[in-house]
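Hi V.,

You were right to ask for the full record rather than a summary. Here it is.
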Amino acid sequence: MAGNLQQRIGRLQSKASLLADRYRAVKRAKDEAEATAVQLKAEIERLKRTIAVKDAEIERLKVTSVLTPDHKDVEATRTFLSELVREIDKCIAQLSI
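Predicted structure:
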């Protein structure tokens, strides 16, 4: 009976040791997962800030593109101004005569 009791105690010690090892492994994995979660949350916040900055930049570019004349408008204005300068030159020439 004493031998049987010793075997049971030995098995219990073995199981307790195995359980403690598994607990440490699970705790280590949990700690690593929590650290990763903290890093990922920080990365998410950083990316949200970057997105907010980029959205503001897009809005500025949209406004700028609306305010900036396109190539056709610039050419039409140049042509109009050139015609006005020619007419002014003609008027000056006529006044000089």
